[in-house]
Batch of 2 targets.
Target 1
Amino acid sequence: MADPGKMNDAKLFCPVSGLNATWEETRTLQRLLWQPLVMNNTPAPNNSRRSFLKLLPLGVLAGVFASLGGAAFRFLRPRISVATDAWLDVAPLSELTGPQPLSRKIVAEQITGWAVATEEHSVFVLPAKNNQVLSAVCPHEGCEVVWEQNRNRFSCPCHESYFAADGGRISGPAPRGLDPLPMRVQGGKLQVQYVSKEQSTRA
Amino acid sequence: MTDREHTIDRIWFLRATGGVVLVVLLVQFLTGVLLAFYYVPSVDHAYTTVSYIERVVSSGSWIRSLHHYGSQWLTLFVFLHIIQLFLTRAYASRRIQWIAAVLVLGLVMAAGGTGYSLPWDARAFFSTRIAEGLVGGLPGVGRIARLWLLGGSEISTLTLSRFFALHVLLTPAAIVAVVVWRLFRTRVCWPNLVRHAIVAGLVFIALALWCWKHPAPLGPSVADMTAEYLPRPGSQFLWLYQSLKYLPGGLGSIAGLVLPGIALVILVLLPWLKSQRLIGGSILAACVLLVGVMTTASYLSDRRDQRTRQQLSRQAAQEEAARREPFRPVPVRLVADTANTGPAEPPVLYTKFCANCHGQHGEGGRQGPLRFPPLLGVSAKPHRTVDDIVSLLQKPDSYGLQPPMRSFSDKLTEQQMREIAAWIVRL
């Protein structure tokens, strides 16, 4: 709209309203709408008022995005999953004998959002080390380690970390040995609390 | 311009409906995307995830309410937009805008219709039933159309997935295509945009405040629904709901789908028709009249009848109470069930009486032209608990089943039926 004078009689076509209006009609409307908002009643230079009005549609759009965006941030904020601190049965003490680490499964419940997930976790019991219980999760990237009986070591199938029979780190990218879990003996049974430790690549 | 058009031109808020439609559409898209971050479209989790959004997630209630009431406001403003276009004879001079507006109205109604099923609460249950009935009653194609809409012969988790895909993928894509086509084929002028922006901004603020005060309704889950539950659709469908009360069964599809469809097609074709003002005017006037009268009648009949009023306020109180109850997460098994590895062997009596048709392990079968439905996963369907299956085996016709399925009352005792049913629901 370079020169309003030239446009006086031309009908401007607006696609959003689907209406034609002359420049004069549009100006009248603007004046009606904006007169009370302009502090100084003497007409402001056309340019600055028009550039202010030009920003208004963008302002409304920004307002919609801002209010929804604020809500979206709260809405999408991640939820920390809550592990139940229940004591989980591993095995009766009478089963836990011999020099080798014994592989056992424990079933733990974890509340994540709307779901209570029942997950199975692998652990190793070390009868030789006073029944210490190790999580089978490799502290490097969280793969499950396996016990290699013939070489007397744990090995991680993902990135070749190796751990001794007592869980200590031998070699490979793992930052530390296998993580021990809190344990106790109750009623002749070995019990643990399942705690998920941070892996080194996430730490 | 005639004098009349000049008058319309002066009613400035009527000239700004386009911007409102655009902004409310934007709100629908944004809130829809957000809801999809939590929603799971399956019969065992849909209700849980929606009530999780409603009761646990921050701002979840507001966002869902925006989406719920936004769809109703959107329908209203698209309709006002069409009226405005009609009064300014857009069908003759600005065809693209006219056609786009009519198409958007149809699509918005379709989105509303499919969206009501998604929470899988009591309302959704009835809404899906109505959709099933309307589509199934279409002359000629009804039977096939119903099967394709439901994804099977019964409303099931497949139906929910279909409604989900229609609601979040197909309809929005079509709406975007129409709106983009319309916006890019026409020029934008800033002075008009300012007016649109002001009105749209005010409407957005009003919608936001309304939704802040009024959370979207969420009925009881289908499992907790009692027989006296009174379903009510969203306000954009009240006219249809009320009309269906007055019409004999067979005419429902005509009134609910065929006539609105024909009206939309005529309105889309209006630019190429003769006596446009008469045809378009009578269709729009009929719509205003029908929607106005029926919506009012629906409100009035709900208020007048005392038992209805009491039941509705009881339901509202129950919803309010449910909203305040703490949310209880539902179990999800990520490990193989050690207690029950794989389905057990079928009971002997199943093999003897049922397996011939429904397969050795409930996989279904066919003999010549006859097809027998599989029993796998049948317990996910409504009305297929152990008790239901037992009474179904006694009286199949009361469950809408037809021959060759027959009653087994003379062959099996109730105890034996119960044994078979207990095995079937675990499939």
Note: The first helix of chain A runs from residue 4 to 7.
Target 2
Amino acid sequence: MTFQLTVSPDFPPNHIAGWYIFNTWLQKALDLPIHLELYPSFEAQREAIQQGKVDMIYANPYDAAMLIREKGFLALTRPQGKMDEAVIVTSADAPYAAVDDLKPGTRVAMTNDPAVNLLGMMMLEPAELDDASLETHEVESYPVAVKLIVQGKADIAFILKEALEKLTPATRKQLKVLVESQIGDLYHTFVVGKRLADRREAIRDLLVNMHTDPKGKDVLENLGFQGWEPVSTEEAEFMMNLIEALK
Amino acid sequence: MKDMNPQDIVGEYREYTLTYYDGTSRKVLVTDIETPYPDGKLIVSTTNLQGVITHANQAFIDMSGYTREELIGQPHYILRHPDMPKAAFRDMWETIQAGKTWRGYVKNLRKDGGYYLVYATVMPNFRDGKIVGYTSVRRKPSRRKMEEALQAYARMREEETA
């Protein structure tokens, strides 16, 4: 039986090769056949999850909560020191200086990343803006959302902070950050499904110690990670409660 | 719980004695200084079934003015502001003890006697179908809705003290 590994589609494009290298390393270390499937969208990935195709996933906080609560997945690890935060950006020459300056009818470019959109909407609440009072444009990636801002086709965009940091300096110069989330309690999580439940401890130990092995360290570097740290059931539950409270 | 210490207070203050649901009383010292709620911040805390704080994030510490050590192990009502009506918290407890999520606007008291305004979500945490504690998330409120809530609370307080 071949197990399937997948990754939340919000990972930076320059890490695609890194995930393939990770999969090769993981297969060897666990002595298990694992296939890496990178889905083009959150919808495609969710459909695969619903069909029971996915066994291991590096999931964004929103999907991790869903997988644990509804699909019986188990949280194992998270990347060291990497928290999920969202930013709302606008054009560098936009007339807005803060969220309170935004008015109903504001055009928002957003991807279908559920965690980032949840945080984005939360940050617009003080201005009393919501789905009903905004004009939303769903796009396939953060660079496309940014492009709409630069072209003047959207007023603001919801972006994963990490994705903003990956943009070129020239692009970033054309943008202004209106607000940035400061939560510190949300992160991507490596979770495994029921078919791998009996190997949970072995996989967690392997990942947590990965940075101590020279080869493992190289693999981590390709993903932009320093290492993995364990996530307890309580920590995972806490994150799920937090996501639930923000809905 | 200890009375508030005048040495911690910044500015002119008024003195009130609050009596909480468990019969405990505490002297609180209150000023009119608002600490504005920063954009994008979330205050997150958890409590046990009795409302005793078990987790406090950095934003909670920054906004309340207490250290983590001063917060953990204390009842969440350490933040209770005398301008808040008792009925609001009674409603919150009834809602969360029934397993439902409570949302509302709250004026919180800081260690230095000042206050901060939040939109709070409090929800029960379940394990094996049983409530094992509560998570509270506070975020920046809409100014207009907060003002409306404060006016309503003032009327409720008048009725409570009448």
Note: Strands of chain B lie at 14-19, 25-30, 43-47, 53-56, 102-109, 115-127, 130-139.
